[in-house]
Write a structure and sequence with these properties.
Layout: H1 32-35, H2 40-61, H3 76-79, E1 85-86, H4 107-119, E2 135-139, H5 156-167, H6 177-189, H7 191-205, H8 212-224, H9 229-243, H10 250-266, E3 285-290, H11 297-310, E4 315-319, H12 325-338, E5 341-344, H13 352-365, E6 370-374, H14 382-399, E7 404-412, H15 417-429, E8 434-438, H16 448-456, E9 460-464, E10 472-474, H17 477-485
Parallel strand pairs: 3-6, 3-7, 4-5, 4-6, 7-8, 8-9
Antiparallel strand pairs: 1-2, 2-5, 9-10
Helix pairs in contact: 2-5, 5-6, 6-17, 7-8, 8-9, 9-10, 9-16, 10-16, 10-17, 11-12, 13-14, 14-15, 15-16
Bound molecules: guanosine-5'-triphosphate.
Guanosine-5'-triphosphate binds near residues 293, 327 and 438.
């Protein structure tokens, strides 16, 4: 059965109820790990049962259990599109009615239908300037992405990951090797932040009532972890309220600290319906991917398209970062790797809105459920960026009025507070609805996640913890905080 990562039981968008998540926790004393987690011996038994179950499944299927690929170093080897269609794009006019054919046809028939549709000039759009180029390239993916087996090991990381899943009410028989592998990666990725800074905070908080010195120390450590001034103030105030007033046993104090961090991370979702974010089957969802060059936008699009494919969604990529020539090539490489088609316009200086237009046409013809759109990371100035993004939004609103649209900002965690300054420009330009935090592996600035949420008021939707195609998953505040403080 296909495992839907976007609706994973312990992710925010889950539809499956979790018996003891942080949202349902009335007080810090009753966090998942304290209420539902059995004692250590039981947890070990749980981990062993999960391990045995995964082993048995592996024997049954005799197929590789996880995917991991080398990041390609050059684009040339794989960029040649399998199919390239060159055609005239008839510039749509404002006055003509919109008619889009979405038949279930073979690939060639669909391509012909698209051509015909355009030739008949039946498509209206909000493109203000005509698309200068006259060719659309559809990079068809190779049939199956490469796979590589990941060894199943019953090690410390496995036990920790199983414990985190157990604490969220998961059953040993439902746990997959991929979930374990991801949690191990997350824990490893946050290792530096945890070791350098948060372990010290944990030991101070665990020592009993906070005196002023302890408060000052915690404050300095949080700032070092790039938690940011606002989130640090919030944490300190909340800790002081609780820990100055009462004598709290160390475990409870730490549980309280974890609760505070989760509260910050979950705050932007407080008034949202739980399943509002995951793509819905049989309807079109469009995610506009924004962010400065180098943040990991292209890589994220590749990883998301792979995740969408394996979660059972029809996915398509629109290469609308036409500002930088190499960006289109890079996105094509990722399309090849994840087995997802890329809609691009091969000419130079093409209108990104025209690419979006073509991508939506293709998405409608192919019954695409998730369309990922790459956008330019750098334009001459903020106004250009705003103009371009709003033009893209207008095209989407006109051409796909029923699509569910989200705008995600890709942020490089290693930049810490500097990344946030860039983020503010995008948040003014792009009507952002969430953040993808990349490169959490190997940085000591993992605390920036808290700053992002507190300062931008945006939820983190995905996190990246490595360069491989499997190294990005939906964000879970519970798992993140556990990896940060108890990994
Ligand atoms: N360690 C690590 N590296 C990452 C992660 N995500 C992306 N990268 C690396 O960051 C670099 C930049 O990623 P890109 O996806 O090319 O970034 P971009 O934002 O599309 O930038 P341009 O390609 O310049 O437009 C690449 O070397 C990626 O492999 C991550 O989660 N962890």
């Amino acid at each position: 059965m296909t495992f839907n990562w976007f609706r994973r039981p312990n992710s925010e968008s889950a539809e499956v109820p979790t018996p003891a998540t942080q949202e349902e926790t009335p007080a810090p004393e009753a966090t998942p790990s304290e209420t539902t987690t059995p004692d250590t011996a039981d947890l070990l038994a749980f981990a062993k049962a999960a391990y045995k179950n995964i082993q048995e499944k592996q024997v049954e299927t005799e197929t590789p259990v996880a995917v991991e690929e080398e990041t390609p170093t050059t684009t040339e080897e794989v960029t040649a599109p399998v199919t390239e269609i060159t055609e005239d794009i008839v510039t749509p006019t404002e006055s003509e009615p919109e008619q889009i054919e979405t038949p279930a046809l073979s690939f060639l028939e669909r391509a012909a239908a698209e051509r015909e549709a355009k030739q008949e000039k039946l498509i209206a759009s909000a493109i203000e300037t005509p698309a200068p180029e006259t060719a659309i390239a559809i990079t068809e993916p190779e049939p199956t992405p490469e796979v590589e087996v990941i060894e199943l090991e019953f090690d410390d990381g496995f036990v920790w990951s199983a414990e985190v899943l157990a604490a969220q009410g998961r059953k040993a028989e439902d746990i997959s090797i991929e979930e374990i592998t991801w949690l191990k990666k997350l824990r490893q990725g946050l290792d530096k932040t945890r070791r350098n800074i948060l372990n010290q905070i944990k030991s101070i908080v665990g020592q009993g009532p906070l005196n002023q010195n302890a408060v000052n120390e915690i404050e300095a450590l949080l700032l070092q972890a790039d938690v940011g001034v606002e989130a640090t103030d919030y944490i300190i105030n909340a800790l002081q309220k609780k820990l100055l007033a009462e004598v709290t046993p160390p475990e409870q104090a730490i549980a309280y600290l974890k609760q505070i961090l989760r509260d910050i991370l979950d705050a932007p979702l407080a008034h949202k319906p739980p399943s509002s974010f995951a793509p819905t089957k049989d309807t079109l969802t469009i995610w506009l991917m924004t962010g400065v060059n180098g943040a990991g936008k292209t890589t994220t699009i590749g990883k998301l398209s792979h995740l969408a494919q394996k979660s059972g969604y029809n996915c398509l990529i629109g290469a609308a970062d036409t500002f930088r020539a190499a960006a289109v090539e890079q996105v094509k490489v990722w399309g090849q790797r994840s087995g997802v088609e890329v809609i691009a316009n091969p000419g130079k200086n093409t209108d990104p809105a025209a690419v979006v237009f073509d991508a939506i046409t293709a998405a409608e013809a192919r019954q695409t459920e998730l369309l990922l759109i790459d956008t330019a990371g750098r334009l001459q100035n903020k106004k250009n960026l705003m103009d371009e993004l709003s033009k893209i939004r207008r095209i989407i609103a006109k051409k796909a009025p029923n699509a569910h649209v989200e705008s995600l900002l890709v942020l490089d965690a290693t930049l810490g507070q500097n990344g946030l300054r860039q983020a503010e420009v995008f948040s003014q330009a792009a009507q952002l609805s969430g953040v993808v935090l990349t490169k959490l592996d190997g940085t000591a600035k993992g605390g920036v996640a808290l700053a992002v949420v507190q300062q931008l008021g945006l939820p983190i939707r995905f996190i990246g913890a490595g360069e491989g195609i499997e190294d990005l998953r939906p964000f879970s505040s519970y798992e993140f905080v556990e990896a940060l403080l108890s990994g």
